[in-house]
């Protein structure tokens, strides 16, 4: 069978046949197909995990809203005003801890 192939493909064909033979020893019913099926299931599972993580990132990114103008202001009163304005849109933002203003969730 190998001799019917072009010379440049014979080594690869021999490697493939050797791999299939080894796989058949480990799994007499499915051989290489069993390994391929397992790998396909792992790929599907990994894609699902990536999709879940991306959804979580999107969700948490949408939860955090900081007014960019507040990031550039340096005066304490302006910072305090921005914190209070931001706390109106996000009640957990700007909560007081021991008399100090929290700069947000970061």
UniProtKB/TrEMBL annotation:
One Pfam family of this chain: LOB
Residues passing through the membrane, by range: none
UniProt feature coiled coil, ranges: none
Domain LOB: 1-57
Domain of life: Eukaryota
InterPro entries, sorted: LOB
Family the entry assigns: Belongs to the LOB domain-containing protein family.
Cross-referenced PANTHER family: LOB DOMAIN-CONTAINING PROTEIN 26, LOB DOMAIN-CONTAINING PROTEIN 4-RELATED
Protein name (record): LOB domain-containing protein
Organism this protein belongs to: Nepenthes gracilis
